[in-house]
Amino acid sequence: MKRAYRSDGLAWVLFLVLSTGSLQAAPPDVQTSEAKQFTDEIKPILIKHCIECHGPEKVKANLRLDQIADNFDNAQNLGHWMTVLKRVKAGEMPVAERPPLSPKEMQVLTDWIAAKAKVAEANRAAQGRVVLRRLNRVEYENTVHDLLGIDIDLKEQLPADSSANGFDNVGDALHTSSFLMEKYLEAADSALNVAIANRPKPPVLFSKKISLKESHNVKTTTESVFRKMEDDTVICFSSSAWNQVHVSTFYPQDRGLYRFRISACAVQSKDKPVTFAVFAGGGRRAGKSGIVGYFDAPPEKPTIIEFVQYMEPRTTIILAPYGLAGANTIKQIGADKWEGPGLAVQYVEVEGPLHEMWPPANHRRVFGNQEQGPAPIYNFRDRVEIISKEPEVDAKRILRDFTRRAFRRAVTDEDINPYVALVLAKVNEKNTFEQAIRAAFMAVMVSPEFLFLQEKPGKLDDYALASRLSYFLWSTMPDDELLALAEGKKLSDPAILRQQVERLLKNPKALAFTENFVGQWLGLREIDATEPSHLLYPEFDHMLKVSMIRETELFFSEVLKDDLSLANFVSSDFSMLNGRLAKHYGIPDVHGWEFRKVKLPAESHRGGVLTMGSVLKVTANGTTTSPVMRGAWILDRILGTPPSPPPEEVAALDPDTRGAVTIRDQLAKHRIVATCASCHVKIDPPGFALESFDVIGGWRDSYRVTGSGKVVMVEGRRMSYHEGKKVEPNDVMPDGQKFTNIDEFKQILLKDKDQLARSLAEKLLTYATGGPPAPGNKPEIETIVASIKKKNYSFRTLVHEVVQSEAFRRK
């Protein structure tokens, strides 16, 4: 199989060489003329006005203008030159302390940059705005799942993807290397191990009810945190991590899907549910990947909570009640006398591994009804493999179907012949037919036709359009209906394309759009980048963090589903809350884990993504908030006007957690420095508008400090922090508009809904196509904005308009 990979790896390298070889260099006389202009006219201006701040002695904004090349076809160089053009036109370069450009110098420099950028844009348009784009980790895993009909974690086997323009599916950032190709080969091998069934049908090893009385920690604990009833019921009163209940009598030998039914209810809970988490594998320390979910046990009356979970061999599930008393408190009284709420579990029923047919559906998805025969090997005497009396005929049939789905288009004999030849060569080397066809599968799964989205310059053909649409809304390959429409050349019909957008959005796979777009647009993937200080924020816990993310995703889905105005992302009268998040926001009468649409009280100061806990957490560190960080986030993610990077010689602020000075006092020093003021006058006001929210998104009137201050009591307990100085969330926008709090700031943002729509349209186009809009796409974006404006800035309409746009339908 290694030899098969090396052969195809060579084809992959040749593919890249041939594709890049089509780029023709400019004629020598043109190069000479342009080089002379750069040397004689442009460089002297840079040396006179720019090198002192952007040269070897000092490098502001990470921009070296003494080394910048005049090659505008290079994306990085083009970006640097466009930054120069923008800042020179805005009067930000040179800085105030330096002599300004003369009118003639200004004209020469800006005209030269604009002309070179226009030529570069024309060159790029001829070859396509979006560069050759490979599947990122998430797209690869989803595609393999759909191709083989399996469910296996593959993305963790692959190196992390780089991001560009805010997204990790942008072609410019998706580099490829021999190391990555090796990892793809290993991932393909892992996937085929799961997809190919070469053993007899495993018996159903578990099909029984388990009492938690049989669990190890319930049987052996000497602490009085469990109440064992006369029947099989066990009541757990503690949320201590040391008292999680491992269902230790369930410890399967075979991986696969298992069905769990948990009979549970809340007791002594004052008619409120008790929430509990279920972890698979390593318990709470397993992190996000180990959690199955949170569930509500209703008061008094037992209910059945059912789910199906993929389990690795020799693992189990763990039940962890949430929000109950600590173990030490219960031990002082004893579980038998404890009157606080508890989780009563009558039994846990387990069935599995689940197989509706054998060979399973994933095996048939690859091989169809190909015959199997005995293929015993050492320690596996019952092993079976697919067999063939006519290897060439069967290989062609199997590979034609496999490559059609893998390549996401119709295939010809020319496409599959190399892979059929590989099968026959392997058979001639005395490999079994299954081993030979497996080598061909692996070659297909590391081929450029599989790993890259095949898009030719100009208008996309129907197959490329099908892939672009499915990877936009599903992050995976097109399904059979999309491929059939593409094969019939019907998908490019605007009406059919609109129907397909609706169909894809209504499919459960569209959850990938919510998770992947929202996770990157709003930065939610960084939720674990910092851990709030347990001294300043003792209320922060795993359930609160998970609830924060869930609120934002559900809110996005609600706006999309109900075709609401995108203005709701700035200000809304509702949100999607559960009991944990409602408590955090101070909103009454919402209990339990389950999320629901909640109308927000007028005085809540919530509504829209700016005031959601998830956004407020990812725009802060674990200890303090920064108006600069939050302000820059709003300018970039919401308004689409990201600020310039800070000068390197200006030291970052060192927040004072002891409370002697506020962040406003510290930033005031930056605002009086000319080199800082031009940016801070734009960044700081949006950031100050969010100062009423702390590191974890809780409302505050005063800062929490570790130094001296007013003692803080919460539910009768003295906190480890003190009350510091008052928060001042007021400021003045660059155009003179004043606000006193977040509510007034939101109204300022809503005055320019066109800019909100413009920003979101650009981000959707970047995510949908794998490349940012080019300057030439600006009129098209304005058309999109004008179109959705007529429909009250409908978000679902925006998605449709993006898909119908030329920028989406062309490379």
Describe it.
With 811 residues, the chain is α+β, with helices and mostly antiparallel strands. It folds into 5 domains: 28-126, no CATH class; 128-201 and 374-454, no CATH class; 206-352, Galactose-binding domain-like (Jelly Rolls, Sandwich); 524-558 and 570-749, no CATH class; 753-809. Helix content is 43%, strand content 13%. Strands 2, 3, 4, 6, 9 and 11 form a 6-stranded antiparallel β-sheet that branches. Strand 18 and strand 19 form a beta hairpin. The longest helix is centred in the N-terminal third of the chain and has 25 residues, at 103-127. The protein is flat.
Helix content, binned percent: 40-55%
Query: How does the helix and strand content classify structurally?
Result: alpha+beta
What's the number of helices? 28
Overall number of strands: 21
What portion of the residues fall into strands of 2 or more residues?
5-15%
Q: Which key terms come to mind for this protein?
A:
Jelly Rolls; 21 strands; disordered N terminus; alpha+beta; 811 residues; six-stranded antiparallel β-sheet; 5 domains; four-stranded antiparallel β-sheet
